[in-house]
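quick one, 215 residues, struct below
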Amino acid sequence: MTDSIVKMRVLMRRCILVLILLPVVIAAGEAAGVPGGGGLEGQPRDLLDEPEIVKVETADRASFQRRFGDVQWTGAGFEGSTVIDRIPTREIRARLQKVFGDPTQKLKHLVDGDNFRPGHYIQFEYWFVINDEIPMMVLDIDGPFGNGLVFAGASRYVDLMPEIKRTLSGKLMDISELGEYEDHYFEINDRQWYLVRYKDGSFEEEEVSRPGTLK
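---
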């Protein structure tokens, strides 16, 4: 994981925003080809049909980072309000779990990394590729205590982001039950660890000591 992504997370943790509008550049060596293009050769496919949103599995993170390593990430294009902007993040997490399964990345996937600092990170990250060519990330901004999500996408596809966001919102709201999950979260202001879960129809945020094993 590059230092630029860590810096992006720090900025996110300090902001009380639904969207991050500050572009973040993720550098992965010298870029080849069209500036800002990275793995985005050619023009985007027509999204008149419903966008195909595919989650990046945990085991495929390195491949995603190589492919989209020099993308300019931005929150622009995601400003339009949808239903998921107005509901608690802990509920959205359960909806994401039901629709897409486990997050691409959680604290437990980062704890053994170089220079790990829990305050730099967040509760969960889902990485997606839309129509096999457009990268997108959704993340919590304040663990289980906020509303909505942070969205980040490739700047060259900014005009397509409203449609992609509406499609994702529709998928998440078109389910009749929520998915159970269990995460850890570190609240940086209070320096407090939490075990966060949805189980047996109830949401829980339990204060815990720094865990030896993260979930």
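Residues 3-27+53-178 form one domain.
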